[in-house]
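Hello,

I think I submitted the Phenylacetyl coenzyme A job twice by accident. Can you confirm which output corresponds to this input? Input:
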Amino acid sequence: MYAQMVKTDAARIKGLDEMDPQERVFQQRIDTGQKIEPKEWMPEAYRKTLIRQISQHAHSEIVGQLPEGNWITRAPTLERKAILLAKVQDEAGHGLYLYCAAETLGISRDQMYEQLHSGKAKYSSIFNYPTLSWADIGAIGWLVDGAAIMNQVPLQRCSYGPYARAMVRICKEESFHQRQGFDILAKMVRGTPAQKEMVQDALDRWWWPSLMMFGPSDDASVHSAQSMAWKIKQNSNDELRQKFVDQTVPQAEYLGLTVPDPDLKWNEEKGGYDFGEPDWSEFFEVIAGNGPCNAERLGARRKAWGDGTWFRDGLTAHAEKVAARRAKSVAAE
Ligand code: FAQ
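Support: Only one job matched these inputs. Its output is below.
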């Protein structure tokens, strides 16, 4: 694998013989499938890449609560409300495990929040689209969690131990999320013609943004070659996008839906679907902050941070009092 990457991206990826001895040992450990743990030596660029990816992943989980949270009060039954509430709470938990994993690399949670709130750190493009109907909640579970699982299952084998281990539980929970989304849609397509239309409309709007979740095409992916050499990523963006399409199209057919892609066609020879190109200009606009809901999403996160100031101040004041009391009693002994 590493040798292949050197060949495909020789301009940027160093060969083993160009590395200094410490870096060579590090790369050989990665090549032989060993995990890297927090206190071990790592190249600065490996640490920075992980902080970027893990913190962006954490931000995605946290911001990702907003489009679905929008529907908790309007879920059609008490049971659906309880399920959605639990799902949104799970996403908060995923964000917290991932922030913890990033903290092991020497960045604080406050710094990560600051990067999110200032717009410096990215979060997944998908969460900048609005949830207009109940079918959108089904579509998020089915397509967005479905794409997230496709991307995250290989991350369980990531070379950095804390990230790989955090992904194990996350993937289990995402599988439940994906099924709950599919179940919402399976019920709706068996309902009235208006409900079925609502599901088709949701698929029409979420299909292309879901394909964009995997990132730009391989030739435009600046980080993939190095991240694959370091086994942070195991697959390229296009490989995972192809797997997602191959898995999802039969599910759309089962639901009696039409995937909104005139170029979608089974290719017997490759044993997968050919499909159209996502609108990459839209993707780059969204990740530059100009998607339909970017301002609303960041506004909600900044407001939550501001609203929580009194609580954080209270916790800090309490901790200081406890520490002072403890110091006094130690001094008195
Ligand atoms: N959105 O060179 P690459 C979820 C950026 S979790 C925004 O290919 P890389 C659960 C990329 O950061 C969803 N930005 O980058 C849930 C880079 O910019 P930078 C999140 C994107 O890192 C479900 C530039 O483009 N999952 O959904 C996106 O090698 C339901 C060049 O790209 C993860 O974060 C994008 N879609 O590959 C929650 C998984 N794609 O940083 C609630 C972990 C690319 O240089 C409800 N992350 N960019 O400024 C990854 O696997 C990778 O980071 C990729 C991107 C595959 C996302």
